[in-house]
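Continuing the batch. This is chain 6 of the set; chains 1 through 5 are on the previous pages. Same settings as before, nothing changed between runs. Recording input and output for traceability.
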Amino acid sequence: MKIKVINKSRHALPEHQTPGAAAVDLTAFIDQPITLKPLERALVPTGIYVAIPQGYEAQVRPRSGLALKHGISLVNAPGTIDADYRGEIGVIVINLSNQSYTVTDGERIAQMVFAKHETAQWQEVEQLDETERSGGFGSTGKI
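Output for chain 6:
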């Protein structure tokens, strides 16, 4: 899949770190470090602008290493970048740990996956077909 991209950062384009990687890593493009106290969040710019083909989206997700080692996640995980969005990709990071964490320029802060999607066409009906499932939010039990 070819993605048109503008890179206004001083860093390399996002890339797959291994041949089997589904995601590319997004890096922080900041002039000064951003220190997040516990439970603080910030919008971290990347300097990357993309044109995603119609019928696709980009999903921005936390990096597992940052989450496990430092409690750094994304507020809206996964964040969706729509095909018609042309602005800079920004990552809303949050510090879920009990210690401050400092984001530095060039640090890999999130990962991005491209995914195909369908466009829903609503069909209003009077009733839905019955299934064995009666509810949600734990209705199938704990085991």
